[in-house]
Amino acid sequence: MEKIIDESVQGQPLVLDQKKENQRKLFIESYGCQMNFSDSEIVASILAKEGFNTTQNLEDADLVLVNTCSIREKAEQTVRKRLEKYNAVKKINPGMKVGVLGCMAERLKSKFLEEEKIVDLVVGPDAYKDLPNLIEEVDAGRNAVNVILSKEETYGDISPVRLQSNGVSAFVSITRGCDNMCTFCVVPFTRGRERSRDPQSILEEIDDLAAKNFKEVTLLGQNVDSFLWYGGGLKKDFDKASDFQKATAVNFAKLLDMVAEKHPKLRLRFTTSNPQDMTLDVIEVMAKHKNICKYIHLPIQSGSDRILKEMNRLHTRQQYFELIDNIKRIIPECAISQDIISGFPTETEEDHQDTLSLMEYVKYDYGFMFAYSERPGTLAERKMEDDVPEEVKKRRLSEINELQRSHSKYRLDALVGKTVEILIEKASKKSDEHWSGRTTQNSVAVFPKENYKVGDFVMVRIDDCTSATLIGEAVGYSENN
Ligand code: 5AD
Ligand code: SF4
Predict the structure, then answer these.
(1) CATH number of 24-146
(2) C or N terminus of the chain, fewer CB within 10 Å?
(3) What percent of the chain has pLDDT over 70?
């Protein structure tokens, strides 16, 4: 599972291949996880070949595509609100066509066309290569839907158009789908079976990014630790692979090692890790390479063994502690973040206390915390009553948030007085005189710009911090520069 980005980012204007004479304007926006943002870059690439240039102005668009998230009800409501906005624009620009991509498209399928009259096109996450045909249908005045999930599609052959890029960091997807079947989660239904991308195409994409002077790459997957390439095919069929395939198979630790070795100047990140699949090999590869960032997003969801079981998380609280201990033993400075859900069905006050005590043990650097939202079609929705009252979910969530805030501050405080390497990403939101960048542990730091520029690796002395940001002053370039 991924970290959710709450705001949408709209495509930057681009000048792309002009294969077709008839240039059209595409407005594409994304909600939800980084995988959606990355997929929109694949979609922009597919449509560039069809003569679509991206625009930042909704009002100018010939085609509007919204890449949607189904993870919580609120995410879906946000998209419905956006459709209302498109509706208003369509009154001024009646030729504009509207398409829905991503998880909501997959979940609702052609029902979308009935529920939202504005929608012309519904395309699931594995069907983007069919977009040119689907758009032809729409041009001919018909609605078009393709929500077929695939066991093979990884878009490994598509070179993404970097839509919201600062030219410094980019996402590279390595797996698609998820086989874990956590009972609360809609993703296995919307994104289908788990499949890994050919390492060769991953390396080529990263070579290209390095050649374009990108400085940081995040390897993306719903469950990166599950990466397994043995010449194609699903992970669950690995048993049936030939001896040669087994001997030459590439798992996540190997992939990480290969990329880090080939690009020692590139900062490498990955997300998301699943405790039940993360191996010691991965942690050792992280320790071996300086350029692999010392940060692991390791969702726990609940600190109660009983709830973990109800969630079909295939590990115990004790096993999670052992993993945390191993990480801290092998990489003492490693930052760890969590996802936690409050108010899963049947969660008692005692279960909630277990979550708080687990947090006390780990003292996470950051966290992404949510109240349980029942999702249609999931096992929890079918088998369990959503029986924790909303106000109880909210109260527990605010206790979790509060504790996380104090732990984040505790972790940042420990850096005050130290000098750390920062990769500059952009101007600080609060001050144009300051740069903003991140440490290897993924903490945000701001400092006066001086003569440094975006993309520089800089050593910054940390003088102060808030609960989420380090504040400091540059003392020179880092040796990585
Ligand atoms: N309700 C609340 N949060 C959820 N997540 C996934 N499904 C749900 C749900 N039904 C959270 C999990 C996951 C993160 C991406 O979103 O914590 O790790
Ligand atoms: Fe990403 Fe879909 Fe999950 Fe949302 S529901 S986080 S878009 S995979």
Answers:
(1) 3.40.50.12160
(2) C
(3) 95
SS3 of residue 213 by DSSP? coil
Token look-up 């395309």 returns 123
- Taking only the tens place, the pLDDT of each residue in 69-113 is 999 999 999 999 999 999 999 999 999 999 999 999 999 999 999
Helix (H, G, I), strand (E, B) or coil at 362: helix
Helices (H), strands (E): how many in the chain? Answer: 15, 22
Question: Is the distance from the beta carbon of residue 79 to the nearest atom of ligand 2 less than 6 Å?
Answer: no
Q: Output the CA torsion sign for 357, 361, 362, 365.
A: positive
CA-wise closest residue to 460 among 393, 241, 450: 450
Tell whether the model's pLDDT for residue 268 goes beyond 60.
Answer: yes
Ligand 2 contact via 345 beta carbon (within 6 Å):
no
Q: Decide: 102 in ligand 2 pocket, CB within 6 A.
A: yes
**Ligand 1 atom closest to 378 (CA):** 10
Question: Which residues have C-beta within 8 Å of that of residue 143, sequence separation ≥ 6?
Answer: 113, 119, 120, 121, 122, 137
Whether pLDDT at 11 is above 50: no
Taking domain 419-477, whether its CATH number is 2.40.50.140 is answered by yes
Q: Is the pLDDT of residue 21 over 60?
A: no
- Ramachandran sector of residue 428 (left: φ over 0; alpha: ψ -120 to 50; beta: rest): beta
- Residue range 224-246, pLDDT digits in tens: 999 999 998 778 788 899 999 99
Q: How many CA atoms lie within 13 A of 399 on its CB side?
A: 18
Residues with CB under 6 A from ligand 1: 1-2, 4, 71-72, 184-185, 299, 301, 339, 341, 370, 372-373, 375
pLDDT tens readout for residues 310-364: 999 999 999 999 999 999 999 999 999 999 999 999 999 999 999 999 999 999 9
Question: SS in 3 state form for 16-77?
Answer: CCCCCCCCEEEEEEEEEEHHHHHHHHHHHHHHHCCCEEECCCHHHCCEEEEEECCCCHHHHH
Percentage of the chain beyond pLDDT 90 is: 92
The position carrying tokens 């349980």 is 372
User: C-alpha distances in angstroms, 112 versus 68, 122, 130?
Assistant: 12, 7, 18
CA of 148 to the centre of ligand 2 (A): 17
What secondary structure does DSSP assign to 403-428, as a single string?
A: HHHHHHHHHHHTTTT-EEEEEEEEE-
The span from the CA of 189 to the CA of 181, in Å, is 9
Domain boundaries, the chain: 24-146, 169-413, 419-477
Phi/psi for 469 (5° steps) reads -135, 140
Decide if domain 169-413 falls under CATH 3.90.1150.10: no
Ligand 1 atom 2: the closest Cα is on which residue?
A: 372
